[in-house]
Every structure is written in structure tokens, then in C-alpha cells.
Amino acid sequence: MWKLFAKKKPTRKLEEGASLSVSYEDIQQKREQKILVWSCAAVGLLLLGLVVILTLIHPPVPQFMLDDLSVDPVSNSSLVVNLSSTNPSYTTDIYYSKMSVGVQIEGIFQSESVFLQSTLQKPHERTPWTAVVTINKTNGSLGMRDGTMKVVAHVNILGKFGILKNSLVVTCPILNDLKAIVSKPCQVID
Questions:
Q1: Quick one: where is this thing mainly located (predicted)?
Q2: CATH topology (fold) of 63-189
């Protein structure tokens, strides 16, 4: 009974032989929208994959510690620097391709940089480095006095497969009070 009183929706009747009109512009616009959406999705997935791959092969930043700094007993114009690095990664090796170490005391002297041997460091391995550096002063004196000094290391490391190279500047600040040399953890600038 309710069906009799319900409003009927007007239906569009086509005459025989007539067809619905669909414009070419509508079809072309929908096609362009689909292409744009799929292109953006493909570029997004490509960038995400690239980020994942670079994260996997990027060399981890090693942790450095200044173990000892002392005046060379043979020559009073040289310092013996003992530096160590630890690979924090669980899976990735680090290859140290070029490494130079020098000592700076602000306004007093700066040593020559000494290049250390290239080496491969396994995960969670601690590698000690020893360098004997000499100063640039002609009188040969270190001019040591109370104050702060820095051991600066320039490090080039290679990651997995030798694809990505990373240059680091390692600065180890030291408080020198002539009675004891107090070392803090080294700062690594990527």
C-alpha cells in the first residue's frame, strides 16, 4: 500500500537509437588524474626504498676516546697521542681510509698532522691508535701551561661495500692542569 503513495523518481528515458553523451574531456581528465596519482605513488615508493637502502649501507659514526696524551720522553718537542675508536654497529664494518691526528693549544701551538694507517674495524671492536706529533714552533718548546687543549683527528670512513664515504672531525677537549691531564669523551662532527 505504501508503494502506491511513494514518490516515483523521475527516470530519464532515452529515445530509441540515442546514447548517453560522454565528453572526451571527462575521460581525458580522469585518465590524467590516474596517471598523476600512480606517478606520485611510484616516486614516493622509490624515495622510501632509497632511504632504506642508504640507511642500511651508511657507515655508522664511531665513538672516539682519548686514552692518553703525554710528552715524548725521547724528544721534549713531541707528544704521544693514544686515541681509540669503537664501532657501535652490530652488523656493519667500518673501513678507516684516511686518518690524521694533530694537537692544538689555542694561541700557543699547533702540531703537524700525522697520518695513521688504514684499517678495517669489525662490529663492536675497539681499535687503539698511537701517533707521535711534533709542534710547528722553531724553538721546540711545547709552552705547556694550565688551560685547555684539543686533540683533533680528521677521519675518512667508508661504509658497507665501500659505496658511501663519510668525513668526520673528531675533537677531544683536554683540561691540562700540569698535575693531571683530564680527558672528556671526544666530540664527533659528521
A1: membrane
A2: Immunoglobulin-like (2.60.40)
Q: If 0-12 CB within 10 Å is exposed, 13-18 middle and 19+ buried, where does residue 157 land?
A: buried
Helix (H, G, I), strand (E, B) or coil at 89: coil
Q: How many CB atoms lie within 10 A of CB 134?
A: 16
Categorise residue 81: left if φ over 0, alpha if ψ from -120 to 50, beta otherwise: beta
Q: What's the pTM?
A: 0.58
Identify the three-state secondary structure at position 31. Answer: helix
Residues facing residue 48 across a β-bridge:
none
**Cell numbers linked to 111:** 702540531
Residues 6+ away with beta carbon under 8 Å from 22: none
Nearest residue to 99 via CA among 127, 70, 79, 125: 127
**Residue 141 in contact with residue 77, Cβ under 8 Å?**
yes
Asked whether 150 and 173 are in contact (CB, 8 A), the reply is yes
Sequence-distant (≥ 6) Cβ neighbours of residue 139 within 8 angstroms: none
Kindly report, residue by residue over 9-50, the tens digit of the pLDDT: 555 555 555 555 656 777 888 889 999 999 999 999 999 998
